[in-house]
Design brief:
Blueprint lengths: L7 E4 L2 E6 L9 E6 L6 H12 L1 H20 L6 E9 L5 E8 L7 E6 L2 E6 L7
Parallel strand pairs: 3-4
Antiparallel strand pairs: 1-2, 2-3, 4-5, 5-6, 6-7
Length: 129
């Protein structure tokens, strides 16, 4: 990914850049580098990891969301949309994915990924805490 041509902007929670992950849809997704003011090497490495592993991430997350919604809400997986991705400046290889979910539009679903495994899944705040 050519970061020099990407527009980096400030979000309330840190700096951000929009990317498209085709396996999650064709909309731009804000990637927020929490509590940071600069696009450093770690941010670039994290974004490149997510882009290059998007198929695996999508498959892992979709499976876990289906299990979670069935277990917690006793509902099958409904439509969900990736809204944001969070990167953590002080934690290696960990990413937060925030989803809007038609089964609970108020709380959404947060998924915390460590490497290529789900570390935690729950309501939206899981993605950024």
């Amino acid at each position: 990914m050519n970061f020099d041509k990407m527009e980096i902007y400030h979000d309330d929670d840190g700096i951000a850049i929009d990317i498209i992950l085709h396996t999650f849809g064709h909309q731009k997704i804000p990637v927020i580098y929490l509590e940071s003011d600069v696009c450093d090497k770690k941010m670039k490495i994290d974004i490149n990891f997510i882009i290059s592993h998007q198929v695996e991430l999508h498959n892992i997350i979709e499976k876990e969301i289906a299990l979670y919604t069935n277990r917690i809400y006793n509902k099958n997986l409904y439509k969900y949309t990736l809204m944001k991705i969070y990167l953590f400046s002080d934690i290696e290889n960990e990413y937060g994915f925030l989803f809007d979910w038609s089964g609970d539009t108020e709380h959404g679903i947060g998924v915390k990924i460590k490497d290529l495994s789900v570390k935690k899944i729950g309501s939206a705040e899981i993605a950024f805490l």
